[in-house]
Amino acid sequence: MEVFECVSTLSSIRSYIQKEAPEDVVMEVLEAGRLAPSAHNDQPWEFVLIRDKSVLKGLERFCLSGKFVSKVSFAVVVVTDPSSKWHEIDSTRAVQNMVLTAWSRKLGSCWIGRLDREGLMNYLGIPSHLNVLTVLPFGYFDERLGGGGKFRRSPEEVFHLNRFGERI
Ligand SMILES: Cc1cc2nc3c(=O)[nH]c(=O)nc-3n(C[C@H](O)[C@H](O)[C@H](O)COP(=O)(O)O)c2cc1C
Question: Is residue 85 part of a domain?
Fold first, then answer.
């Protein structure tokens, strides 16, 4: 899928079908995260791949705004290192790389932001000096239903030409 097509069709997916992603696609998604750029090339991230169904099911109780996490093919828990100043910005770029790569392979995802972080870190054995940015579920979905469509502020509202407030 061409990059702009991927960006312009990407939608958060919260309902998944039962179909496993092949190993090479799973690893490609992780690679897309690892290859992201970062300030000073700090790479302040770790990615915990969850494929085991019982662990996925166990994640559900910590993903307060994403109970669908237990229904997916795999999930990636994005762990950041707060000792690096831009850890969340850098890791968010890794997230977008992964989500777009997955989308180009017909896998949907959705940023899960409201988490029981402490419980999740205990559950997965994540050291306490690190931070969990998000849990990303990845799975196939019914393309006829797709996402919810794009609802964005209009170009007129958000684009400015040469000076703030001048229309393009
Ligand atoms: C930082 C961030 C946190 C989000 N947290 C959640 C969440 O906890 N649960 C959820 O279902 N969606 C979450 N989303 C997805 C947004 O609701 C979604 O991206 C937005 O409504 C636009 O819809 P779209 O992604 O389908 O274009 C989050 C997105 C971002 C960027």
Answer: yes
